[in-house]
Design goal:
The complex is a heterotrimer of chains A (333), B (163) and C (508). Chain B is mainly alpha-helical. Chain B contains 5 helices and 2 strands; from the N terminus they run H-E-E-H-H-H-H. Chain B has 2 domains: 2-66; 80-160, no CATH class. In chain C, helix 5 (91-102) runs antiparallel to helix 6 (106-140) and helix 5 runs antiparallel to helix 14 (301-317). The chains are: A alpha/beta (333), B mainly alpha (163), C mainly alpha (508).
Chain lengths: 333, 163, 508
């Protein structure tokens, strides 16, 4: 019975010690997992107000705000200069700052390579990929072109005067144009006319000022089916919104696949917990009903990816874009 | 006044020649099948500015000999008191701009407004303090709280975010 | 008849309490944002977009359109009272608005601006309501050569409106054009004139930075030198009688307003630069038609009415291609178009069928927002008059601070604030030496568009400038080019004539 006495006293002590331990343990785990933004998050956009990347960023802002997923507001900031160079250099200067994120286009790969910038994807922290935008080859409905054979014939008939509208030079649209010319032996027969944004490109096709474009579905939709006709898709499978449009793969050109990735990057060297918080945030966003609705109505591929696979995806895309640029003679080894 | 006119014309010639030289980084000629290159407009514009500025300079030199009461030639560029007034607010204004990135736009603005009101304008302490604190507070609420545009805070950033 | 039915349906939607409140809220915010140097309608709409996330799209677009409208009115306020255009659309308003304010007639100018804006806006909405689809077809016919021709027309109408010295006008114009080439070359995608990689130059020289610099900061320097403490601010009176007498005076502006509104609507509708060239063109045309052209620039009411009716008309006009074609007619509608996508709406002919509530609710609300804006703007006049009566020793430092904040917020880059201050000094010196500032600003605003559309046309034609004079292929472009040529030559004729007279005068 004597031996019980200290043990009796030990019970409250042990309980206290244990509870303290638990509190401390809980506290530390909480401290580990509990990074939260403490000031407004700068949401840097590599393009001007009103463009495709800007729209996506503002849609994300809307979804995050409406669902109250972030204790601090997302503040979109447009840094459009130098085809994305300004935005990427800005992120480089914000190394270690977890309150800045960047929404990217494919100029994320092409601009650093072409302009020899001191920054590329390896200097930043990949956070999340949300979608892959698709490309279609479009012509004006008045042209009477029905399929790829008609298209090739029409281009050849114009004897080098065929025009293709697209956004910016040495960017996505021109890469796609070049892929097309190579695949169909049309080198030197298509003149590429650069415009400022995808919407303007589509309008110039609808108005008959250029002969063809490689617009994203969302850009072509306002003029479809009245004024613009899609000929073929640069996707591995048919796009659900354009079920009648064949893919280039079906037409015997399986290498003609091109996507525009929409992903989120943070500056290099941000705390692990911050990365975890953002990953969680964009995971919720990517799986939200709003995002699913948007991607299906605008014929984008919803493509949620994070962590190591995202790193690998970036590395592959980087190699792919360098090869494309080299193929065009714009980049040397 | 005339001297200032000539200095500005000479300055324009030098600056535009410098810009013309920079513009040659891109093709300044007419490309086959494409029209003017990327450097065409800036290059020829700067050369144009240099040429016209030279004409202004020559005109000014000629008119000096002919007519002293020419509109551009008359009067002094800046009076002594005018310059004093300008410097007393202009220089601190410049310092205010430079301090924005260091001590935040709010503190920088408060200091500058207080300086202008109390030391230069001769307003009483109550008005000076009221305006110099009131304006930054109003700007803070409009920009940070309502419009959610974070303004530069420099090293004072920690003061604005407690957690 | 069907349109009238739709219109009443739309007015019904717009008059629901929630939408009415959104419109009022938007107009008040818009006037405030427009009056603040730096935040024009583009930034206002972009910044306040998150507020609309909580309401249905129809209410949201009503709110954004009301901001757009309000900002057009508000921009005139800072142009008139402080000589700082809040947005590029209000630059032309400074030409006569500020001289009027200095004469003690700020209230007249503000009321004129509000009423002219109202008339311009309303006429434009009526056109919008009844002719949207056919006009959209017309706008679609504008490709790069046609757009270039319109821009050239804007320059042409503006020729001959420079300062005293033609040489200095040429320099100022070329400087503005040169500044517009800084940043990224749109055609080749290469960085251009970034002076060894200065990041602040990558996004180009923002119009607002130049305008706030040379007008806002430069104006403060100018006032400081005239005597900081002794400076008497202009006496501004405002009462019921002043408003009534201004309204009576306005009748003589009627032809100006009518011309300006029509012009504004059509230029705004074209997918080019929107309201800014419209306001400049309207001003120049008003001056040409005026019985008293010598008063322009010194404080003519027509000089305030002309750009204001045009920029409001253009803001409605620019919504037409946005809804019908999915292309923005102005930078602000580009942001609104982005909002449409965020709400999951696809612009285009189908929008009018599938989302009739949205389209006609917006149309209806434009009538209401416009009426509200004129009332809000007139009620705001006394506040600004009170502000004008403040001593310069208080007003000047506050304006400098507001300019700094305004220069920073659009791009969130301190570099722009430094640049703005430098422009302030340059603007001050240029003004003293009779270099005209307006051509420089106009050239910067239109420069990018001019170069881009010209080079796009040249690529389209494989290097042949004949594309601009091809009556068969591009009849609109060719016709506009002819009009521009005539307008360029016209002011030269009296100049030659005057030269002869003055020659004979001195020899006699």
């Amino acid at each position: 019975m004597k031996s019980l006495k200290p043990s009796k006293r030990a019970i409250p002590f042990l309980t206290l010690a244990l509870s303290l331990l638990i509190v401390v343990a809980l506290g530390t785990t909480q401290a580990l997992a509990a990074w939260k933004p403490t000031r407004p998050i700068e949401f840097v956009i590599m393009a001007g107000k009103g463009g495709g990347a800007d729209r996506i960023a503002r849609l994300m802002q809307k979804i995050v705000t409406q669902n109250k997923w972030s204790p601090q507001p997302l503040v979109p900031i447009n840094k459009k200069g130098g085809s994305g160079a300004e935005a990427m250099l800005y992120l480089l200067s914000k190394k270690g700052n977890p309150h800045v994120i960047l929404v990217t286009l494919n100029s994320f790969f092409t601009t650093p390579a072409l302009r020899k910038l001191p920054v590329n994807y390896t200097k930043l922290t990949p956070v999340y990929r949300l979608a892959m935008d698709t490309f279609l080859l479009w012509v004006n409905t008045k042209s009477g072109i029905k399929n790829m054979d008609d298209f090739v014939k029409a281009v050849k008939a114009k004897k080098g005067k065929w025009t293709m509208g697209g956004t910016g030079k040495m960017q996505e649209d021109q890469l796609v144009t070049n892929m097309l010319m190579q695949a169909y032996g049309l080198k030197g027969m298509i003149t590429y006319v650069p415009f400022r944004g995808g919407g303007t490109v589509a309008k110039n096709l609808a108005g008959g000022h250029v002969d063809s474009t490689v617009n994203n579905p969302s850009e072509g939709l306002p003029h479809y089916p009245g004024k613009m006709k899609p000929i073929a898709a640069l996707t591995p499978e048919r796009i659900p919104a354009f079920k009648d449009v064949p893919t280039f793969k079906e037409l015997g050109q399986p290498q003609l696949v091109y996507f525009m990735q929409r992903s989120i990057n943070a500056p290099g060297g941000i705390p692990k917990d911050a990365l975890a918080w953002y990953t969680d945030l964009f995971n919720k966003l990517c799986n939200s009903k709003e995002w699913k609705d948007y991607t299906s109505s605008k014929a984008l591929n919803r493509a949620c990816l994070s962590g190591a696979p995202l790193g690998k995806f970036f590395a592959d895309e980087d190699v792919k874009h360098k090869k494309l640029l080299m193929g065009m003679g714009l980049l040397k080894n | 006044m005339q001297r200032a006119d000539r200095i500005v014309a000479i300055g324009l010639i030098f600056v535009s020649l410098g810009v013309a030289w920079k513009a040659t980084e891109l093709p300044v000629g007419i490309l086959p099948k494409e029209g003017p290159g990327g450097g065409f407009l800036p290059f020829w514009l700067s050369l144009g500015i240099a040429a016209v500025a030279l004409m202004v300079l020559i005109q000014s030199l000629l008119s000096a000999r002919r007519d002293e009461s020419d509109t551009a030639g008359a009067g002094v560029f800046m009076s002594r008191e005018g310059l004093g007034d300008l410097m007393r607010v202009g220089l601190p204004g410049m310092i205010m701009i430079l301090l924005i990135g260091v001590i935040s736009v709010y503190f920088s603005a408060a200091l500058f407004i207080f300086y202008c009101l109390f030391l230069v304008g001769g307003h009483n302490l109550k008005t000076s303090l009221g305006v110099s604190i009131g304006v930054p507070v109003v700007v803070y609420y409009i920009f940070e709280k309502f419009l959610i545009i974070p303004l530069p805070k420099g090293y004072a950033e920690f003061l604005f975010y407690w957690n | 008849m069907e349109i009238l039915g739709n219109l009443f349906y739309g007015l019904g939607i717009a008059l629901s309490p929630q939408n009415l409140l959104m419109a009022l809220f938007g107009v008040v915010l818009g006037v405030a944002i427009g009056a603040m140097p730096g935040l024009g309608s583009v930034n206002g709409v972009a910044i306040l977009l998150p507020i609309t996330f909580a309401v249905p799209p129809t209410s949201a677009i009503i709110f954004l359109a009301a901001i757009y409208y309000g900002a057009m009115y508000g921009g005139a306020i800072s142009s008139i009272t402080l000589n700082i255009p809040g947005a590029s659309t209000a630059v032309a308003t400074t030409f006569d608005g500020y001289p009027l304010a200095r004469k003690g007639k700020a209230a007249d100018a503000l009321v004129t601006a509000a009423v002219a804006s109202f008339i311009g806006g309303t006429l434009s909405i009526v056109l919008f309501t009844f002719f949207a689809p056919p006009l959209a077809e017309f706008a679609l016919r504008f490709g790069p050569p046609e757009e270039f021709a319109v821009v050239l027309l804007a320059y042409a109408t503006f020729a001959g409106l420079g300062g005293e010295s033609p040489l200095k006008t040429i320099i100022a114009t070329m400087l503005g054009l040169l500044m517009s080439t800084v940043g990224t070359d749109i055609v080749s995608g290469s960085p251009r004139l970034i002076f060894g990689g200065i990041t602040g130059f990558y996004h180009g020289i923002n119009f607002l930075v130049l305008a706030i610099g040379i007008y806002g900061v430069g104006e403060i320097f100018y006032t400081l030198e005239e005597g900081f403490k002794t400076k008497e601010r202009y006496q501004a009176k405002l009462g019921v009688q002043e408003i009534v007498s201004t309204l009576k005076n306005l009748t003589k502006c009627t032809p100006t307003i009518a011309r300006g509104s029509l012009l504004g609507f059509f230029v705004g509708m074209l997918p080019a630069a929107g309201a800014t060239p419209a306001s400049f063109m309207s001003y120049s045309i008003a001056k040409r038609f005026a019985k008293n052209p010598e008063e322009f620039g010194k404080g003519a009411l027509e000089g305030v009415a002309a750009p204001e009716c045009a920029n409001n008309a253009a803001s409605t006009g620019s919504m037409l291609p946005m809804l019908t074609l999915g292309i923005p007619g102005s930078p602000t509608t580009a942001v609104m178009l982005g909002a449409l996508f965020v709400w999951g709406l696809v612009p285009g002919p189908r929008l009018f069928v599938e989302n009739a509530e949205f389209v006609w609710g917006l149309t209806g609300s434009l009538y209401i927002a416009n009426t509200m804006a004129v009332i809000v703007a007139i009620f705001a006049v006394p506040i600004f008059i009170w502000m004008l009566r403040m001593p310069m020793t208080i007003l000047a430092p506050i304006i400098l601070v507001v300019c700094a904040v305004g220069g920073f917020s659009p791009t969130q880059d301190m570099f722009d604030v430094y640049l703005m201050f430098i422009f302030g000094a340059v603007g001050y010196i240029f003004r003293k030496l009779d270099y005209p500032l307006a051509p420089m600003v106009l050239a910067l605003v239109l420069g990018g568009l001019t170069e881009r559309t010209f080079r796009q046309s040249m690529i389209m034609s494989h290097g042949s400038p004949g594309i601009f004079f091809d009556f068969a292929g591009h009849p609109i472009a060719a016709a506009l080019m002819m009009v521009s040529a005539v307008l360029f030559i016209l002011p030269l004729i009296p100049m030659i004539f005057r030269f002869r007279v003055s020659r004979s005068g001195t020899s006699a």
